[in-house]
Write a structure and sequence with these properties.
With 344 residues, this protein is mainly α. It contains 16 helices and no strands. Helix content is 77%, strand content 0%.
Length: 344
């Protein structure tokens, strides 16, 4: 009965019926706690799987409370250096990551990594996901040098365990290339991105998201290095793959058109840039509506192009529309950050 109720709650979340999902979960929780005892890990675990998927800051706070409670219980029951404690820390860090809180996620992931290193040693390939997740948090927190160190370590372990061309190396290669690009080390980042492309073309294959991401990253590296002509074919190939995978009107395609538009601006190809901005706006308005902040951002970019081509009145209209959207858009409530007690 409680498992059925929890499954129902998960299904309701996927349908957007969040209040009803919470009601069903609370019913299931009461039954689980009667069976296993109040606050038991067995009672708490089901709710942590879908609660982080619920939107809104209030629901994130509820999910954070649930995850933190699970960490406390698992730490008390199994020990502060147990695999269960590490899993709880990783789950909580994952929630912070989805909230855009990498500085909160980092210490938790570092603690989880320390637990796993004590259990597995420092060269076990099972550590690779932990190293990559921590590198991801550091990269998003602006700590590129630390992300590079972790990525190099994950890569070295992966190469020793799987060989130099295995697709399991892709996450470590990705974060290392990203960290190096952030530090202006474009030559090494380019070499790594080309290596990622070579691996991804074989596995997962020539029409895979992994390859599209790799092409995009190499184009970003060229663009950041001022090599705009070199970047263009990689952006174009990435767009082609994403269109094949997602369809021409998927919101992700709008971001690719924006990148191409800005690239064409830098190349002085204003007509091509304008066409890309228009395609991006069409997709965003169709998917998110005419008053979404992403629409406003694209309008402002487009207006900048119009000003460069001396079409000031058109630019002014777009800027007025963008500013009206931004003025009416209420930013999300500030994150409510609870104290974090990491396992040392």
């Amino acid at each position: 009965m409680p498992l059925t109720l929890n499954n129902l709650a998960g299904a309701l979340v996927s349908l957007g019926s969040y209040e009803e999902a919470e009601s069903q979960y609370q019913r299931a929780l009461q039954i689980w706690e009667k069976i296993f005892g109040p606050g038991s890990s067995e009672a708490l675990l089901p709710g942590t799987t879908w609660r982080p998927c619920m939107p809104g800051q209030q629901q994130y706070v509820a999910a954070e409370t649930c995850q933190r409670r699970a960490v406390e219980i698992w730490t008390e029951r199994y020990g502060a250096e147990s695999p269960q404690a590490a899993l709880g820390l990783e789950n909580l860090a994952g929630l912070y990551g989805r909230q855009g809180r990498p500085t909160d996620a980092g210490p938790l992931l570092a603690s989880a990594l320390a637990i796993r290193e004590k259990e597995l040693g420092t060269e076990d390939p099972k550590l690779i996901p932990d190293l990559v997740n921590l590198a991801d948090a550091y990269a998003h927190a602006g700590r590129a040098p630390a992300a590079a160190i972790l990525s190099r370590r994950a890569l070295a372990i992966g190469e020793k365990s799987f060989g130099p061309e295995n697709s399991q190396l892709l996450p470590a290669l990705h974060f290392l290339a990203l960290a190096l690009r952030e530090q202006g080390q474009f030559t090494e980042s380019e070499v790594l991105s080309k290596r990622i492309i070579a691996i991804a073309e074989k596995t997962p294959g020539p029409e895979s998201p992994s390859l599209a991401h790799a092409l995009d990253e190499l184009a970003d590296t060229y663009s950041d290095d001022g090599r705009y002509t070199a970047a263009e074919p990689y952006y174009q190939r990435s767009v082609a793959i994403w269109k094949h995978l997602l369809g021409e009107t998927h919101p992700a395609i709008a971001a690719e058109w924006n990148k191409l538009a800005m690239l064409y601006e830098r190349l002085g190809r204003m007509s091509d840039a304008e066409s890309c901005y228009r395609q991006s706006l069409t997709i965003l308005e169709a998917n998110d509506g005419p008053d979404h902040p992403d629409v406003a951002s694209t309008l402002l970019n487009y207006a900048g192009l119009l000003r460069k081509t001396r079409r000031k009145s058109e630019a002014r209209r777009l800027e007025e529309r963008a500013n009206a959207i931004l003025a009416n858009h209420k930013p999300p409530e500030g994150n409510v950050s609870l104290p974090i007690n990491t396992v040392r």
